[in-house]
What we know:
Shape: elongated
Structural class: alpha+beta
Low-confidence stretches: none
Oligomer: single chain
Mean pLDDT: 91
Largest sheet: 8 strands, antiparallel
Number of strands: 10
Amino acid sequence: MFFKDDWEISDILDDIVLGRGVKRSIHDLEYNNNIYTGLFIERLRIYKYRPMPVKDIKVQVGQRIPAFLIRRKAAIFGYVFWEVFSDKRKRKLWGSVVRNAKGDWKYTIPGNSEAVVFANPNSPEDIDSYYLS
Length: 133
């Protein structure tokens, strides 16, 4: 249960949303036997993240849109972007910043998917589409 005067949890969740002093990764939303998924979603909305199917997120080649995938009691940070293979071949996807043993995105969602992520389309970041890290 969350008490309105318990601002410390809100501050911690804000740090996760903003990447402020916190590594972008998978964040467990359970603390002291309480699950804060609902509060985390409230904090996302405050910072202009909104639930959107990946297929509906508009992103230009050479940019990426920050987005969280919420899975049960975990928030997985990643981006929606275009992976460019050549001048004629590319694909849009959401990819986590967490990598697998081979160095690929551990979690991905295809760009044509109805799967919902919490994205902030107002905060695109420029990237090198040929070298994604």
